[in-house]
Target: Glycosyltransferase family 2 protein
Amino acid sequence: MDVLLATYNGAKYLRAQLDSLLAQTHQNFRLLVSDDGSSDDTPAILESYRVRFGERLVLVPNPHHGQGLVRNFENLMVASLHDGVAAWVAFSDQDDVWLPPKIELCLQEMVRMEQEGGAELPCLVHSDLTVVDEHLGVISESFATYQRMDPLQCSPLSLLSVNQVTGCTMMVNRTLLRMALPLPQETIMHDWWCGLVSGSGHRRFVPTPLILYRQHGANQVGAKDRSLKTRLLRLLTNGQGIVRRVRVLGGATYLQAQALQLRLRALGLDEGYVSEYLAWRGGPLRARIFGYREYYVGPELDRLSRCLLWFK
Model:
């Protein structure tokens, strides 16, 4: 299997993540790394770990520096798929710490899924995380609880609006990788897109936290306190900015769902639920207000804000 590590100016935390990969109970993996043009010591750190990883560390050329996280991961996905060696890939951020059984437990679940449903179906495994601060002090033992999510109840329909598949915990099989590529321009995040593609196959959530999910000032995507008190305070201090971000995300989710519809049609797969969703999103507010709980998951404040602020 391949571990895909996208890096960019990650020198501060990269060593801890690389050490955690070397401490995995399952060591039969390659580490594919794509750098997005780092100007810090990231390239030097990667070179210094070549001896410890040996030939398992593969630096994937990135000819298009500066295109961001999604395209950096796409570069790795393409490299792994075209190389044709790995049956499964796992996605790794540069600033987390993987607990020793992370790969082993996800791989066991993946093999079980493929035995039950067949490797020709897209399969995805993801797990819970422990949320920690930049010094690895525990903020919350469970990311799912902290975010008030229930990934066990996640459905292909609800994933169209809310991503509950955390990329740094995710492992996918080769079939899903092939179906997901190329990532459409409308992709919000690579992990969200892979989660959407898994709706045509199997997805399984491991409720055990397998990663220390580090929170710091440079997180591109992170965990936020979603208590009612904290959220009301954010509304009072930055209400206009929050409304603007919600509306932007609403438009992006609609375009991403359209891209999924086109991909499923091209693959000859059922896209009925996506068409249903898009039709509902395009309907009048009076129609959407009665069905929003079916399409939007999470805290009620989130659900209502999407219903009122999301349009096509």
Q: What stands out?
A: The beta strands are 2-7, 30-35, 57-59, 88-92, 97-98, 123-132, 138-140, 171-173, 202-214.
